[in-house]
Amino acid sequence: MLATILNATLYTALAIHVVLIGVALWRIWRGENIVDRLISADLVTVLTLAVLAVIALITRNSIYIDVALGLAALGFIGTIALAKYMADEQMF
Question: What is the pTM of this model?
Fold first, then answer.
């Protein structure tokens, strides 16, 4: 009984996160300015991390956590690079 409730909750959380990724992607596509698009890109990264964590819980496979950690590092570096480009209008 408890496992059924846990699985239902995990699948519901997975569906909600996927829908939120779609909303954030729409905001990247139709963002009014570069700041909106930058924040949305960071939000897509965070939501993808959450999806990977939920998938790791569903499948009981820890490799998804390792992938999420790598994606977190790349997302952080990408956000810093885009913010620097936005501030200076040059990359390096």
Answer: 0.85
Residue 91 confidence (pLDDT) above 70 = no
Q: What six digits make up the tokens of 25?
A: 């992607």
pLDDT > 90 in the chain, percent: 68
Are the C-beta atoms of residues 72 and 49 closer than 8 Å to each other?
yes
Read off the DSSP letter of residue 30. H
For 38-91, give the DSSP string: HHHHHHHHHHHHHHHHHHHHHHT-THHHHHHHHHHHHHHHHHHHHHHHHHHSS-
User: What is the domain partition of the chain in residue ranges?
Assistant: 2-88
